[in-house]
Amino acid sequence: MLHTSEIWSSPVKQLAEQYRCLADWLEKHDIIPWQVAVNWSKDALIVHLKEETFMRIFQGHLAQQSSDALGLTWTVESENLVFTCFTPTTTQ
After folding, report:
1. What is the mean pLDDT of the chain?
2. CA angle 77, 5, 37 (to 5 degrees)
3. How far apart are CA 3 and CA 41, in angstroms?
């Protein structure tokens, strides 16, 4: 018989734990994220929020900013999850 414990000691276990944390977080804040993605290089979830939601929940938190020609991305790590918000550059 095959021993399957190695499967659950892999990144799958880490992602499963993060999904459980995310479920608790979503229930706590009563929101639905814009998108949830997996950063496979870090075996971590990335939770994308709409700008209004991100600013309301993470007001007062220190957020990393990165920008490019398309816009500004805000990033906060909280409760073992990575939350992001993208604000597009407006052109006139």
Report:
1. 86
2. 30
3. 27
CB atoms within 10 A of CB 28: 10
- Tell me how far apart the alpha carbons of residues 3 and 31 are, in angstroms, rounded to a whole number: 39
Instruction: Let me know: does 75 contact 84? Beta carbons within 8 Å.
Output: yes
* Unique residue bearing structure tokens 């990144």: 11
32 vs 42, more confident: 32
> What is the maximum alpha-carbon separation in the chain?
66
* pLDDT of 4 higher than 70: no
Q: What are phi and psi of 68, to 5 degrees?
A: -150, -170
Amino acid at residue number 58: F
Is the confidence at residue 23, as pLDDT, over 70?
A: yes
Read off the tokens for 30.
Answer: 């009563």
Residues in a beta bridge with 73: 66, 86
Long-range pairs, 61-67, Cβ under 8 A, ≥24: none
